[in-house]
Design goal:
The chain contains 1 helix and 10 strands, in the order αββββββββββ. By secondary structure, it is mainly beta. It comes from Flavobacterium piscisymbiosum.
Length: 159
């Protein structure tokens, strides 16, 4: 009976993931229990169809140890020619009462954060993401950002 239940669960999982037709690239990297301010998460993107447009997302997994309402990120896209475009981004991560935003049934939440839309790629790109959170009234950044466990990058084909 246990094998039958496992097989059914595996089949349901495969069906759910195979329905994600927009996904072109989706990868996570662990940052441990705290994301160090000097730690840069890098993604090597595959070569994509240069005639199509894509939407880009930053995915995060966080837990109840995340102490802030907002999250600040510095995201750099490195082109094949070596040119790098850098963006400083701010995302709301919690409601005013401290409840984390995102999807999930446990204390771990997954947030799909919009980054860019209608992007065209020509060649092989790299994406670099680092946290830039600071406490109110303090200049130095938070050395070890608790609560963020995984950082991901997702590319979806635009319809």
């Amino acid at each position: 009976m246990r094998i039958k239940n496992s097989a059914i669960l595996l089949l349901v999982g495969i069906l759910l993931f195979s329905c994600d037709k927009k996904r072109v690239f989706d990868e996570y990297k662990s940052v441990g229990s705290a994301w160090n301010k000097d730690s840069i998460v890098t993604f090597d993107l595959p070569v994509l169809d240069s005639t199509k447009k894509y939407n880009l997302f930053i995915n995060l997994r966080d837990n109840n140890n995340y102490p802030f309402k907002n999250l600040f990120l510095i995201v750099a896209i490195e082109t094949p020619s070596g040119f790098t475009k850098v963006d400083t981004l701010e995302y709301e991560m919690a409601k005013p009462d401290g409840t984390l935003l995102g999807n999930g049934f446990t204390d771990i939440k997954e947030s799909k954060l919009y980054y860019k839309e209608d992007v065209k790629f020509k060649g092989k790109y790299k994406v670099h993401i680092k946290q830039a959170v600071r406490e109110s009234g303090k200049i130095p950044g938070v050395q070890a950002l608790e609560g963020i466990t995984d950082v991901g990058f997702r590319i979806e084909q635009k319809d």
